[in-house]
């Protein structure tokens, strides 16, 4: 296991943690537990991160498993409130697809959970034979900016939009 604290050009500390884990249910569970422990040690209370790691690590163990090859969990926490999660496996040909499972399906909802909890997520290819599924969470919410002093004629609420 590796943990680093680095400094960017503005002296904002960045905390990083990486670990290789076996592509098993036990490895996936350990990924979630390590995420919770490290974020807690860093003073970050972020339950969504634990759920995201649980889903991505379970996918790495189930769909990205290659005998004899581990998956990698990487966590990064920046001072500006960004938490980045990366799970890397060695099955680049098996890309994750978020889809709506059948009503009675017992699985297939993991990426829908990731999509709901993360502010952004995606897949990075390489180096061969790897792929990394990543997700980012903004712990500091974006401010709302006033668009105009125009009121809705029905309920008289000012108009706002996301920045």
Assess the beta-strand content as a share of residues: 35-45%
- Helical stretch count? 3
User: For the CA atoms, what is the radius of gyration?
Assistant: 19 Å
What is the number of E strands? 8
**Structural class of the helices, strands and pairings?**
alpha+beta
Can you give the helix content as a percent range?
Answer: 25-40%
SSE order, as H and E?
EEHHEEHEEEE
- The pLDDT mean sits at 82
Low-confidence stretches: 146-163
**Spatial order of the strands in the main sheet?**
1-2-3-4-6-5
| Termini separation | 38 Å
The dominant shape is: globular
> Main sheet?
6 strands, antiparallel
Description of the structure:
It is a single chain. The protein is of the alpha+beta class and about 160 residues long. The protein contains three helices and eight strands; from the N terminus they run ββααββαββββ. It has a six-stranded antiparallel beta sheet, covered by helices on one side. Helix 2 (about 45-60) runs antiparallel to helix 3 (about 110-115).
Put the structure in a nutshell:
The protein contains 3 helices and 8 strands, in the order ββααββαββββ.
For the structure shown, list the relevant keywords:
alpha+beta, two-stranded antiparallel sheet
Strands, helices and their partners?
Layout: E1 2-7, E2 13-21, H1 25-41, H2 47-62, E3 71-78, E4 82-89, H3 110-117, E5 120-125, E6 131-138, E7 144-151, E8 158-162
Antiparallel strand pairs: 1-2, 2-3, 3-4, 4-6, 5-6, 7-8
Helix pairs in contact: 1-2, 2-3
């Amino acid at each position: 296991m590796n943990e680093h604290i680095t400094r960017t050009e503005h002296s904002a500390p960045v905390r990083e943690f990486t670990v290789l884990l076996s592509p098993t249910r036990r490895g996936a569970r350990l990924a979630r537990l390590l995420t919770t422990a490290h974020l807690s040690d860093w003073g970050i209370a972020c339950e969504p991160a634990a759920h995201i790691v649980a889903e991505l690590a379970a996918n790495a163990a189930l769909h990205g498993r290659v005998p004899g090859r581990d998956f990698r969990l990487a966590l990064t926490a920046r001072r500006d409130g960004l938490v980045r999660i990366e799970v890397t496996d060695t099955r680049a040909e098996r890309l994750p697809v978020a889809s709506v499972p059948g009503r009675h399906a017992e699985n297939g909802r993991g990426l829908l959970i990731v999509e709901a909890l993360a502010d952004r997520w995606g897949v990075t290819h390489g180096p061969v034979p790897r792929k990394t599924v990543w997700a980012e969470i903004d712990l500091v919410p974006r401010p709302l900016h006033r668009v105009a002093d125009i009121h809705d004629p029905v309920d008289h609420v000012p108009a706002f939009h996301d920045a």
